[in-house]
């Protein structure tokens, strides 16, 4: 609800009480004078009137000052709650009111689109430009948005890097597409900051009135679903709300409320996928991969629930569970194989993972050298120094650190020379195209050369055919993981541990 300031002079409850108190005091004072001086004093009437007038003037000036201060405070509060201080755009509160007005008018007039836009990797922009220049960039971005809106109040800054815009159109898909195209062309046009040219990456979600919904909260939620889908599919894209696709996302959001219960009910399970050495052909370890065995939905993939757990904070107890269970399982294996556990960047922001791992090792009795922790590149965008020191402490106690999904992150490569990873895991997206894509081969050769020069080992993940397995072996990869060699499985179903590189032997 929008707070509106009462600009005229007004008296509130507290002030009425104060004023009543002062009036009582005046009365009491008059009675006191009357009692002290008696009614025969000639001065009594005058003195009484003068004193009462003085006290009344004093009271009025107190009320006035109180009231003035309150009006000023309310004005400032209104300013803050309706307009973003940095960009001057509407805040979330005012924007909600604007949508409401649009809906009232649109019943009689025309359709409109609600567009949510996120500047991707804004933390990275902040870090590389510095806060002052990043602020200027946000102001310039806002100006371009306003240029496309009918009114300034149709544009909002919803959070640090999240913006919203309402665009009226005539209901035809072509018109909307043309307007969106013009908007995006303008927003993608490089910004200049201190002599540098900055190109922004944007993710967006769009919902339409009246096609998608006629209610403001629904339109907002649908645009948000579409935005989430754009982010999940790799950022830097704008999606319109699609009932089927976004309902799935919505459905997954429902899981969010169910996670605590599921952990208590032992519904989370670790599956283990084998990893093999190229040189010996023998199994060297397992990667622990979590699953949710939901009573109604069956097995849910971590790709579906980990992003939700990262949003709602559940990733912290979940990761602790995964680490403890993985270490415990590894101690029960016949062969002293290594166990690799995935860490989430969100978990690392909130928990001292080095302490957690030490505790897991102590409680389970697993040798530190048998534990490998997998982190992703995104960790180094948000918290490079802190992450690096935590990971270094882990290496000091003998735990190895692998960089997972290498090649899919956003960062430059400079963090590779700043942190001595023990291993790089080349992402499946490069591996799967290897047999027919020369570009993928060139990337893999370059990565292998670079890792060798930095003294890092290399695992190729996602190997699902023999041809690719052979290519990677010849290219000099150290370890292999993929469906061809073994799918992730419930360890309880494994009689012992697998040994040997079966598919490679078969292929030979
Ligand atoms: P990841 O760590 O990169 O794990 C490898 C993923 O690739 C696994 O998917 C695995 O089943 C899949 N994979 C392996 N070989 C092949 C192949 O040959 N073909 C295909 N198509 N897929 C293959 P999964 O188990 O669905 O896990 C997805 C992601 O979820 C993991 O990617 C990891 O980022 C995350 N994850 C899984 N368990 C945990 C966990 O305990 N904690 C955290 N923070 N993340 C986890
Ligand atoms: Mg992994
Ligand atoms: Mg991976």
Provide a quick synopsis of the model.
It is built from 20 helices and 17 strands.
Can you characterise this structure?
The chain has three domains: 2-82; 92-241, Reverse transcriptase/Diguanylate cyclase domain (Alpha-Beta Plaits), CATH 3.30.70; 261-507, TIM Barrel. The longest helix is centred in the first third of the chain and has 39 residues, at 44-82. With 508 residues, it is α/β, with parallel strands linked by helices. Helix content is 51%, strand content 18%. It binds ligand C2E and magnesium ion (2 copies). One magnesium ion binds at residues 404-405, 425, 427, 461.
Quote the CATH topology of the largest domain: TIM Barrel
- What is the beta-strand fraction? 15-25%
Attached small molecules: ligand C2E, magnesium ion
What top-tier CATH class of the largest domain fits best?
Alpha Beta
Provide the domain count. 3
Total beta strand runs:
17
Query: Which strand order spans the largest sheet, edge to edge or round the barrel?
Result: 8-9-11-12-13-14-15-16
Known CATH architecture of the largest domain? Alpha-Beta Barrel
Number of helices: 20
Kindly report the average pLDDT value: 84
Radius of gyration: 33 Å
Main beta-sheet strand count, sense and barrel state:
8 strands, mixed, barrel
Class by alpha and beta content: alpha/beta
Low-confidence stretches: 1-9, 499-508
Query: What is the chains' assembly state?
Result: single chain
In helices, the fraction of residues equals: 40-55%
Through-space gap between termini: 71 Å
CATH superfamily of the largest domain: EAL domain
Shape: elongated
């Amino acid at each position: 609800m929008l707070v509106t300031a009462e600009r005229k002079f007004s008296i509130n409850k507290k002030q009425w009480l104060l004023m009543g108190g002062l009036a009582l005091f005046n009365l009491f004072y008059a009675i006191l004078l009357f009692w002290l001086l008696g009614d025969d004093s000639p001065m009594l009437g005058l003195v009484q009137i003068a004193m009462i007038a003085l006290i009344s003037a004093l009271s009025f000036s107190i009320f006035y000052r109180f009231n003035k201060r309150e009006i000023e405070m309310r004005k400032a509060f209104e300013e803050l709650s309706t307009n973003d201080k940095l960009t001057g755009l509407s805040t979330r509160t005012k924007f909600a009111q604007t949508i409401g007005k649009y809906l009232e008018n649109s019943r009689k007039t025309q359709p409109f689109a609600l567009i949510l836009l996120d500047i991707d990797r804004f933390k990275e922009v902040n870090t590389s430009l510095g806060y002052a220049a990043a602020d200027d960039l946000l102001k310039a971005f806002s100006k371009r948005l306003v240029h496309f809106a009918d009114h300034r109040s149709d544009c909002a800054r919803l959070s640090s890097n999240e913006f919203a815009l309402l665009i009226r159109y005539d209901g035809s898909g072509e018109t909307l597409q043309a307007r969106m195209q013009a908007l995006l062309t303008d927003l993608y046009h490089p910004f200049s900051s201190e002599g540098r040219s900055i190109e922004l990456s944007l993710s967006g979600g769009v919902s339409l009135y009246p096609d998608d919904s006629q209610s403001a909260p629904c339109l907002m939620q649908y645009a948000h679903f579409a935005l989430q889908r754009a982010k999940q599919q790799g950022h830097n894209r704008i999606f319109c709300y699609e009932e089927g696709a976004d309902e799935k996302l919505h459905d997954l959001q429902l899981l969010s409320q169910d996670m605590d219960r599921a952990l208590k009910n032992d519904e989370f399970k670790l599956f283990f996928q084998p990893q093999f050495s190229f040189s010996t052909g023998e199994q060297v370890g397992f990667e622990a991969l979590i699953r949710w065995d939901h009573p109604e939905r069956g097995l849910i993939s971590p790709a579906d629930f980990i992003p939700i757990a990262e949003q709602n904070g559940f990733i912290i107890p979940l990761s602790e569970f995964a680490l403890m269970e993985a270490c415990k399982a590894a101690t029960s294996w016949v062969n002293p194989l290594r166990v690799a556990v995935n860490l989430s960047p969100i978990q690392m922001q909130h928990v001292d993972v080095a302490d957690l791992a030490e505790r897991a090792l102590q409680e389970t009795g697993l040798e530190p050298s048998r534990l490998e922790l997998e982190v992703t590149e995104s960790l180094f965008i948000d918290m490079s120094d802190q992450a690096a020191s935590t990971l270094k402490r882990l290496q000091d106690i003998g735990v190895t650190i692998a960089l997972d999904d290498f090649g899919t992150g956003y960062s430059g490569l400079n963090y590779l020379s700043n942190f001595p990873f023990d291993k790089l895991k080349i992402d499946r997206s490069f591996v799967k195209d290897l047999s027919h894509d020369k570009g993928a081969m060139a990337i893999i050769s370059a990565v292998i050369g670079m890792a060798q020069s930095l003294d890092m080992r290399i695992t190729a993940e996602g190997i699902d055919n023999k041809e690719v397995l052979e290519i990677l072996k010849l290219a000099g990869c150290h370890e292999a993981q993929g469906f061809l060699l073994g799918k992730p499985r419930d360890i309880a179903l494994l009689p012992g541990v697998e040994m040997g590189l079966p598919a490679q032997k078969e292929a030979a």
